[in-house]
């Protein structure tokens, strides 16, 4: 793992280069300042150094990476966070570390290193470990299996939440033949007809590599899993697990203890997704009833109906496995957690609701990684439901002498299946007025006719649906959807965020200080009760509401007296929680149960704008409420 790293400060230059590499195209200094959380002046200074090495290019549009230099990273140092990982990793390998040896090694002052060690104390506490000081020496105390959980977490952090594959694991454990183990793992799984997806395969490979490395170093768990109830496994799964462990012992010339074998059996069996030939996991009736309750709860809270084809059954399989893992205290790592939270806030919020309901009904604690897996399972169903609501309602006006009406409608629906719902076929303009439609008509498609329809938008096409016809309908769809979204978005904004609920924050402020200030105002306005601040904190404890440089704090209860929100702009940033996250824009929502549909709409709209750092860079320039609302609507 990480060895012998030296640094004096966080390497913003390397962060700038990595961001430009990962996001091709031109980026303004304002946007980059928001992304990195530093001043525009600092961005220009770091950019100048990168330009001199030809790592990036500059123009009036800003900066972009020099693709010709893509493989030549200018980063030669690492950050405080990486030093923290080095120290944690070495604490798992050594009996104790001397603080003066560390100061000399990393060229850090004693006070700075003490601060890092206190951060490490908080970090390892979440793994049921203790960092203990005895004079000038520090040591890590706790179970061997918990130390391995830390090693796994370090590797995931070093990979910056991307997929951890064979190559990365091999580089981290050079004393283990990871490539050979991976080859055997694939062969044994194929022989046993066991399907392992990418997450499952890499999860097994990582844990057996850690176990092998630790065994070679002389660390063994001592009867730490004897009290755990073994998951029910089929004969083929048990045989696969035993054969894999035996093959590792033989090839790596190690002998796992009984406790080690039990631990590996748990991890491997929890990671087996499903059999290729048998997708029926015999889901228990209680689990199906629980899933029905979760689907109903999401619909009650967010007006999202997840009763789509096959979702219930497949989701029940995942929930049953999740409950078994949670009952054993096992958390399945998810390398996509941060990415899902940032890129799909409405889906992640839906997953948080489900995990909160699970915690209340079953008394289990659902970690962020497991919440992200829930989001992955429900993502398609949520997207499909929301997309249908955003489709335009269309009526086709077509003379009745056409003999291929049904075929035409079918082709039109197929071409624009993602954009329109065809509600009715009529033959004359008079019929257009005669029906009671379930929704207002967004536009009419006239086929081989040229009537003037003053009360509704329309387009004229032929029955052949040529390329020219397709482009006419496509342009009209795009124009109407954009106009509707902009009008709805602006109306929702002004309804949710009145002008007196707008604050530009210049001084330093923490998340909890901000909650106190805003909630006191909302209580005075009789929007919420005094308990609202505690509800906000409880929601943050489930999983942070920050994604990127934006936070949308809210209560899960929807118990506000009135539905209102509060906008806070913080050009200098707000420290959001204890994990070093900093945000520049906050949309605080207080929602009454009667307005849950509007809440979901505003949450969805805001998250679409907020996921792009360029948008945040523009928003924090605004100096008034009207400018802010106008800019936000324009960005949509």
Structure description:
By secondary structure, the chain is of the alpha/beta class. It folds into 6 domains: 58 residues, Arc Repressor Mutant, subunit A (Orthogonal Bundle), CATH 1.10.10; 63 residues, Winged helix-like DNA-binding domain superfamily/Winged helix DNA-binding domain (Arc Repressor Mutant, subunit A), CATH 1.10.10.10; 110 residues, Orthogonal Bundle (PTS-regulatory domain, PRD), CATH 1.10.1790; 105 residues, PTS-regulatory domain, PRD; 100 residues, Rossmann fold (3-Layer(aba) Sandwich); 139 residues, Mannitol-specific EII, Chain A (3-Layer(aba) Sandwich). The chain has 25 helices and 16 strands. The strands form 5 sheets. Strands 12-15-16-14-13 form a 5-stranded mixed β-sheet. It is globular and about 90 Å long. The relative contact order is 0.06.
SSE topology:
Elements: H1 12-22, H2 29-36, H3 40-52, E1 56-59, E2 62-65, H4 80-91, E3 97-98, H5 99-106, H6 110-125, E4 130-134, E5 137-141, H7 144-158, H8 166-172, H9 178-191, E6 194-195, H10 198-216, H11 235-252, H12 258-271, E7 274-275, H13 285-302, H14 311-327, H15 337-343, H16 345-362, H17 368-389, E8 392-397, H18 405-415, E9 420-426, H19 429-434, E10 443-447, E11 458-461, H20 467-496, E12 502-504, H21 511-524, H22 532-542, E13 546-547, E14 550-551, E15 559-575, E16 582-592, H23 596-610, H24 613-619, H25 625-635
Parallel strand pairs: 8-9, 8-10, 10-11, 12-15, 14-16
Antiparallel strand pairs: 1-2, 3-5, 4-5, 6-7, 13-14, 15-16
Helix pairs in contact: 1-3, 2-3, 2-24, 4-7, 9-11, 10-12, 11-12, 13-14, 13-16, 14-17, 15-16, 15-17, 16-17, 20-23, 20-25, 21-22
